[in-house]
Amino acid sequence: MADHFETGQQTRRRILGDAHVDRAEACTTELDKPFQDLITEGAWGTVWASDGITDRERSMITIALLAATGNHEEIPMHIRATARTGATKTDVAEALQHVAIYAGVPRANHALKLAKQTYQEMEAE
């Protein structure tokens, strides 16, 4: 798994940025280190590192899935990542249209609210 971990670290930094990863690693404790290793290897070292689809497409899918499953707390992080993945505001809006139809208007509405807030913060930075 060392290869998946190293690939995961590189992919995570490419998508989320060094500052985000450095902050997350600084907060890692003995309690959550196994979890952090798991997501680094599995999510970032396997799924996000796959060349089966583009980072842009993966970004849109991830935001839609987070919204559809009500996991809104990670949406701002993935909206910020669109600056690196190439997913545009239009891409995100289109993905959330699908969420509204297939998973529910309230979830899509809340995700759009978070996206708007995050984009405003990004523009102000």
Would you kindly provide a written description of the structure presented here, covering whatever features stand out?
- This protein is an all-alpha fold and 125 residues long.
- Helix content is 79%, strand content 0%.
- The protein is built from 7 helices and no strands.
- It has helices spanning 2-16, 18-26, 33-47, 55-68, 75-85, 89-103, 105-124.
- The longest helix has 20 residues, at 105-124.
- It starts with a helix and ends with a helix.
- The model has no long low-confidence stretch (mean pLDDT 96).
What is this structure's SSE topology?
Blueprint: H1 2-16, H2 18-26, H3 33-47, H4 55-68, H5 75-85, H6 89-103, H7 105-124
Helix pairs in contact: 1-2, 1-3, 4-5, 4-6, 4-7, 5-7, 6-7
Write a concise keyword list for the protein shown above:
125 residues; mainly alpha; 0% strand; lyase; 4-carboxymuconolactone decarboxylase; CMD-like
SSE pattern, N- to C-terminal? HHHHHHH
Query: Main β-sheet: number of strands, strand sense, barrel status?
Result: none
Distance between the termini: 37 Å
Shape: globular
Q: Could you report the average pLDDT, rounded to the nearest whole number? A: 96
Alpha plus pi helix count: 7
Helix content: over 70%
DSSP E strands, number: 0
Please state roughly what percent of the residues sit in beta strands, choosing from under 5%, 5-15%, 15-25%, 25-35%, 35-45% or over 45%: under 5%
Protein name: 4-carboxymuconolactone decarboxylase
GO molecular function, one term: 4-carboxymuconolactone decarboxylase activity
InterPro entries: 4CMD/NDH-1_regulator, AhpD-like, CMD-like, Decarb_PcaC
EC number: 4.1.1.44
